[in-house]
Amino acid sequence: MSELEPKLVTNPPVATIASLAAHVGDTVTLRGWLYNMRQSGKLLFPIFRDGTGTIQGIVPKAAVSPEVFERVKSLTQESSVIVTGSVRADARAPSGFELDVANLEIVHLVPASDPFPISHKEHGTDFLMEHRHLWIRTPRQSAILRIRATIMRAAQEYFDTNGFVRTDPPILTPAACEGTSTLFELDYFGDPAFLTQSGQLYIEATALALGKVYSFGPTFRAEKSKTRRHLTEFWMIEPEVAFMDLEGDMQLAEAFLTHIVTRVLELHRADLTVIGRDIAKLEAVIAPIPSESENEAVILSEARSAESKDPEEARPVTTAGTFSTTEPGAPGSAASSPNLGWSATTPRFPRLSYDEAHAMLDAAFKAGKLEAPHIYGDDLGSPDETYISSQFDKPVMVHRYPAASKAFYMQPDPADPTKALCVDVLAPEGYGEIIGGSQRVDSYDLLRARILEHNLPLAAFEWYLDLRRYGSVPHSGFGMGIERAVAWICGLDHVRETIPFPRTLNRIYP
RNA sequence: UCCUGAGUAGCUCAAUGGCAGAGCAUUCGGCUGUUAACCGAAGGGUUGUAGGUUCGAGUCCUACCUCAGGAGCCA
User: Fold this and answer.
1) How high is the pLDDT of residue A114?
2) Share of chain A above pLDDT 70, in %
3) Reduced to 3 states, what is the DSSP secondary structure of residue A457?
4) How high is the ipTM of this complex?
5) What angle is formed at CA A178 by the lines to CA A483 and CA A352, rounded to 5 degrees?
6) How far apart are CA A354 and CA A418, in angstroms?
7) Is 50 exceeded by the pLDDT of residue A466?
8) Is A134 helix (H, G, I), strand (E, B) or coil?
């Protein structure tokens, strides 16, 4: 490949396809791959891609040397090239711009005897997943990965600009964090160890050291889940804040999600269009609700009337007051909502207590809209979450689940100790839970009792109990699964398209 | 772990228990504005594996393998 080096320094300078609108009339050099080629007699229409987009080239036989014409004609799908030509606006070209090719060098010619496996016809999921390393070259997959990158960057950006310190927990852990999920076990110099399923317990420690913290990294679940919502390896971003109660946690989640969706809408209109995403549904998420911003009310009502569903169905999102909101600073709590950077125009998401969610599901079952009844006291099942989230055009926050169905570290509600001060954020359009959070138990005696009740090894949690021995404070946090958030924002039907190389129950290749 | 479904050409799919087929891709030929281009021709098969029923099995039966998406569990 060293023979290529001189070609990489070019004059005129190398451009990217995404920037060609600013180069109309210029001669540019592009480095990329042949995406597709059509021809009509002695006219060739090679379509190039370079990772930033695609551009159609045109090569009339009479306009170039016979060598260049034959070289272009010999190109096979995904052959790599360096191409020079002038940029011209042309309505006949798919992107509106076209490249009059003057010269083209082949960097690597894909042999016709072994063509690029992914054609422009449809393929099955098994085939595509076996060729994931090549599938990501297609426009749709590239667009998704660009949006994923923005979602990750916007998530970090939100915390970084609001005084959070990033403190990443270990990935190798000595014991289960929550004692519920099945973990990947490995041998740690003769002792058992596990891949982390959540950094939460560790960032509780860093939150009591640094105040506002977050972690961002991969997590692992060995559950034999085989659905469109599950990966065995996925990325999670988790904030944890000292002196913050459940109300603050919910406001943080609202502002955080609003920031992420806003950024994606700012930067990825074209990519969302490539994917076929209904952009109006994302705009509805960040639209202020009427009761808090009357002058913006028209935006929301337009967004909602655009998808007018069953008119007899109550649309509780219209007014936040329809549902009980949690009073800031729960009784018996020293916490309040610290200033986390959201403004008065931060949209509020609809909230449902567990009891209200149960009533909604009960009514839906009796109306024949759910196949199975929801049993009071049980956690929400997937069909339950799908139903609830489909009733709103913003993410919906379900809070105060029965403590018995939740993790041992969740603080009981002083108003009803059978409930936990926790919240799940369900994404709209049936995407289900993307965020799970809670206020944590801050009493040493209660936490110790909970650990024993759940038959967890006390010794493994001594360090965690120390956080309640030395300057314990009310604190809260949540975790957001990146891939589920990407699937929702991109409107995908499976999380396997949201990560470059998905790891699922039946797949660890490529 | 349970339930359901699918495995036929490189890919996507057809084929009443009776000759193994089409489109795309590949190769060759044609076409100066193509839009997953189009037109003509050619090559390409151990029908997931192993048994069984039958004169005859891609098709029916049994077991297994692989994959898919739903439940449970979760983000």
Assistant:
1) 85
2) 85
3) coil
4) 0.89
5) 65
6) 12
7) yes
8) helix
Under CATH, what is the fold of the domain A2-108?
OB fold (Dihydrolipoamide Acetyltransferase, E2P) (2.40.50)
Given CA atoms A119, A122, A123, A125 in this order, what sign does their dihedral have? positive
Q: In this model, does residue A397 exceed pLDDT 70?
A: yes
Nearest-5° Cα angle at A504, A499 to A507: 105
Q: Which nucleotide is nearest to A484 (CA to C1')?
A: B75
Residues 6+ apart with CB under 8 A from A405: A377, A378, A379
pLDDT in tens, A162-193: 999 999 999 998 875 555 668 888 889 988 88
Phi and psi at residue A162, to the nearest 5°:
-120, 25
* A78 phi/psi in degrees, rounded to 5: 75, 10
Question: How far apart, in Å, do the first and last CA atoms of chain A sit?
Answer: 25
Between CA A131 and C1' B26 the distance (Å) reads 19
**Nearest nucleotide relative to A406: CA against C1':** B74
* Protein CA at A506 to nucleotide C1' at B65, angstroms: 13
Q: How many CB atoms lie within 10 A of CB A221?
A: 19
* Predicted pLDDT at A15: 86
Higher-scoring residue by pLDDT: A309, A471? A471
- For position A333, what pLDDT does the model report? 37
Burial of A156 (0-12, 13-18, 19+ CB in 10 A): middle
Q: Tokens standing for A359?
A: 């009533």
- DSSP E strands, A41-135: 43-49, 54-60, 80-89, 97-108
pLDDT at A176: 57
> Average pLDDT, whole number, for chain A?
85
Q: For chain A, which residues make up each domain, given as ranges?
A: 2-108, 139-497
Q: How many CB atoms lie within 10 A of CB A222?
A: 15
CA distance linking residue A260 with residue A215, whole number of Å: 17
Task: Give the pLDDT mean for A148-172.
Answer: 96
pLDDT tens track for A97-111:
999 999 999 999 998
By C1' distance from the Cα of A225, the closest nucleotide is: B73
pLDDT at residue A398, as a whole number: 95
Give the list of residues 6+ apart from residue A1 with CB closer than 8 angstroms, or none.
Answer: none
Rg (chain A; Cα; Å)? 27
Share of chain A above pLDDT 90, in %: 61
Element (H, E) at A192: strand A191-195
| Angle between helix A279-286 and helix A297-305 axes, rounded to 10 deg | 140
Residue A314 pLDDT more than 50?
Answer: no
Chain B: positions less than 7 Å from a protein CB are: 1-2, 10-13, 23-27, 30-38, 66-75
Return all residues near A455 (Cβ < 8 A) that are at least 6 apart: A179
The CATH number for A139-497, chosen from 3.40.190.10, 3.40.50.2300, 3.40.50.720, 3.30.930.10, is: 3.30.930.10
How many Å from the CA of A77 to C1' of B4?
Answer: 39
